[in-house]
Amino acid sequence: MPRGRKNKYFTHVKPRLETIRAWRRRGLTEAEICKNLGVGYSTFSVYKNDYIELQEVLKSGKGDAAAQVFNALFQRAVGFEYEEVQTVGTHNTRTGDEVVTRIRKIKKHVLPDVTAQIFYLKNRCSKDWNDRRQLEHGGPDGQALSPPVIHAYIPDNGRGVVRTGDTVSRIPRIDLDHD
Questions:
Q1: Using a CB cutoff of 8 Å and minimum separation of 24, what contacts does 78-84 make?
Q2: Distance between CA atoms of residues 20 and 34, nearest Å
Q3: Residue 164 in contact with residue 149, Cβ under 8 Å?
Q4: 20 in a structural domain
Q5: Over the stretch 85-113, which tens digit does the pLDDT of each residue have?
């Protein structure tokens, strides 16, 4: 019989796989899940590599959470209607203290949110809705531009050496002083 420490996967993790899925749906990170389970993060990483069912639970929970956020963003971008329930209490003047309560249902409309629309379009249709524009400069008929040639005279400062680009050449000293 093997000795040593028991694997916490079978006591702490496996019985709570559906709870882990729910935590992922709510947006908890793996570190927070480890803390809730009482398992170290490095041990949890080993369990993820060893047990496929844990990988699938984490992946599906994360996908569910992303889908919920995506749907909420889309609803906010296009606007939506919802029904609000209000409880209204009125004082009955004939009987004195008696309060009559009524339940009112009010339909409300949330207008589309421009910021949510921009965010959605930039991420889902980035080809058409991108702030960055790439400009390409070209010559006639779309040909590449060639760099201009610059000719410069650099005085020799009395040393007789002229540097142009990568070449160094000796030039004869010319006396420019005229009487």
A1: 78/112, 79/109, 79/110, 79/111, 79/112, 79/113, 80/109, 80/110, 81/107, 81/108, 81/109, 81/110, 82/107, 82/108, 82/110, 83/107, 83/108, 84/108
A2: 10
A3: no
A4: yes
A5: 888 777 766 666 666 677 888 999 989 99
Q: Token digits for 87?
A: 């409880």
Residue 149 DSSP class: P
Give the CA distances from residue 2 to residues 5, 6, 39, in Å, rounded to whole numbers and listed in that order: 9, 10, 22
Backbone angles phi, psi at 108, to 5 degrees: -120, 155
**CA–CA gap between residue 17 and residue 68 (Å, rounded):** 20
29 occurs within a structural domain: yes
Residue corresponding to tokens 């160094």: 168
Q: Does 94 fall in a domain?
A: yes
pLDDT digits (tens, 9 = 90+) for 10-24: 888 999 999 998 888
The total number of structural domains in the chain stands at 1
- Is there a contact between 33 and 24 (Cβ–Cβ < 8 Å)? yes
Residue 83: domain span? 9-126
In a domain, 169, yes or no: no
